[in-house]
Structure formats: structure tokens, C-alpha cells
Specification:
Elements lengths: L2 E9 L5 H14 L3 E6 L14 E7 L2 H9 L4 H9 L1 E9 L11
Antiparallel strand pairs: 1-3, 1-4, 2-3
Length: 105
């Protein structure tokens, strides 16, 4: 089953961003991830929460691949820099329909 990293990020200090994007992008790909979105362009349809500066969605071939990336020593310094220089939410979402109605490829 595929899994998806879903993040909403507000950058509070920009010094980490350039190195993060340059180095983490190929690292994600090496661990089997594929960026589906990394963008500030979003349109709100409903809700009262403020939109974040950045939305991120990465598709992973498995939960294990996502965890291996997230917990890797290679990613650790970039994760720490991101956490120190931003606020937001980062979740791992299963690519499933618990109602078993939608076709999930």
C-alpha cells in the first residue's frame, strides 16, 4: 500500500531552505519517494484555519520506505534544521479508503 507524507509548513527562518531543497529532494527519491506537490499555491474551499505558506505531498511505495527516510541519519540534520526554522504539521497518511468504496490504485 502506498503512503503519503503530507505537510503544512510556515517558514520562520529561511537560512535552511536552500540546502534542504537541494539535498533532501534527491534523498527522498533515493528512498523511493516521489514529490506530488511542494507549493505555496492553494485555494481554500472550506474551513477557518489560515492557509500555510507551503503544502507538501510525497508519495511513498510503503510505510517502511517513508519511515526509513524520516529516521535516516542522512535526513536527520535537514529534519532538525527544518524543525528549528519552521512551524507546521507533518503526517504520514495511508493510501486507503477505509470504506472500501473508492478505487485506490
Amino acid at each position: 500500500m502506498k503512503y503519503y507524507s503530507v505537510a503544512e509548513v510556515d517558514v520562520t527562518e529561511r537560512s535552511w531552505v536552500g540546502e534542504y531543497v537541494k539535498n533532501v529532494t534527491p534523498l527522498v527519491e533515493r528512498f523511493g519517494g516521489r514529490y506530488l506537490a511542494r507549493t505555496p499555491h492553494a485555494e481554500k474551499f472550506e474551513g477557518s484555519r489560515k492557509l500555510p505558506q507551503l503544502f507538501l505531498i510525497i508519495e511513498w511505495p510503503s510505510k517502511e520506505a517513508a519511515r526509513e527516510f524520516y529516521e535516516s541519519e542522512e535526513y536527520r540534520p535537514y529534519r532538525e534544521a527544518r524543525m528549528a526554522g519552521s512551524v507546521g504539521d507533518f503526517a504520514l497518511v495511508a493510501g486507503e479508503d477505509v470504506n472500501r468504496v473508492a478505487r485506490m490504485d
